[in-house]
Amino acid sequence: MMKAKEDTTSFRRTTRPSGRSNVVPFPGQSTAEPATVAAAAVHDLQKSEALRAALLNIAPDLIFTVRKDGMVLDVHAPRDNELSASAREAVGKRLKDQLPTQIGQQATHYIEKAVRTGQTQVFSIQHALPNRTRVFEARISPCGPDEVFALVRDVTDRKLLQREILEITNRERVQIGQDLHDGLGQHLTGITFLSRALENKLVSLGIPEAQDAAEISKLVMQALSQTRNLARGIFPVELEENGLLQALRELASTVEKLFSITCIIECDDKLIVRNRAAENHLFRLAQEAINNSVKHGKAKRVSVHLKRTEDKTLLSISDDGVGFGNEGPKVGGLGVRIMNYRAQKIGATLEIAPGNSGGTVVTCAFSNNNT
Hints:
Layout: E1 11-15, E2 21-25, H1 34-58, E3 62-67, E4 72-76, H2 84-89, H3 95-98, H4 101-117, E5 121-129, E6 132-144, E7 147-154, H5 156-204, H6 210-234, H7 237-242, H8 244-259, E8 262-267, H9 276-295, E9 301-308, E10 312-319, H10 334-345, E11 349-354, E12 360-367
Parallel strand pairs: 8-9
Antiparallel strand pairs: 1-2, 3-4, 3-7, 5-6, 6-7, 9-10, 10-12, 11-12
């Protein structure tokens, strides 16, 4: 005799007094009919699509949906955006075939990084338009296993303002460095000579206070040394006179004296960076990374490497500090933003990652054409 087939549904059947059966859901289950549930789902979907359409309609920026391999799947291009026509033509094509080589490489790098890390990536590019060059900021965020949203915004005016602020900051830095070296430094040097002369005079007279004069001379010499170190950090004379490599070595020496740590410079002596603007940005980037290693990473050893490959030059700063932990670097932190800005100014990419043996590694990679 065959057994009755088990009822595997989520409902149980009861009998009304009239003899007719009634379907009763188990406790905690919805009593809604399938058609009602489907209608609610359709309503929610329509509401979500309406919200998405409204957000896109008020966005003045170009928004692309891009596959991991660089294929453009879709684009939102406002009518009043001067790049709308060319943006729509990019659908169904790869970015590397539509953009200049360097920009295409940057875009591909950050798309792959966004997919790999699951984090939003931000970078800036310069793009030549008829009669002028504009600066665009791209924000790339993963939206699926192998897809990203890319929002592209014209930030030319903002970048011009940032550049002016940076130039003002650099001028003030140079002025302060020169004032420390030529002003305060010279005064301290004069005090040092006077205190030594006083010490010698007191010694010749056999006055016990000669020892106090010697202590004053020693303290003034220490103050003079600290002033010179500060002046070098604010305004690296070596960078102006002897180039990036010597400036990095001088920076390492100053860091060792100020923070009592080990700072090693490993560079190819034949490597020359001819672009003065790139030299300045690379030096300041290395300086910021070293300061972060000491102050935030509590590092006792920092290594700076500068080397050139066939198509790129790599500047890396590694340390044995505490690192960033699982949360990663603070993208919104001032130090990280400054380093990103300097890297973008020379068309470089910036990576901040944990070291193989702990600590942190900051790597700036830029095209040899920019140096």
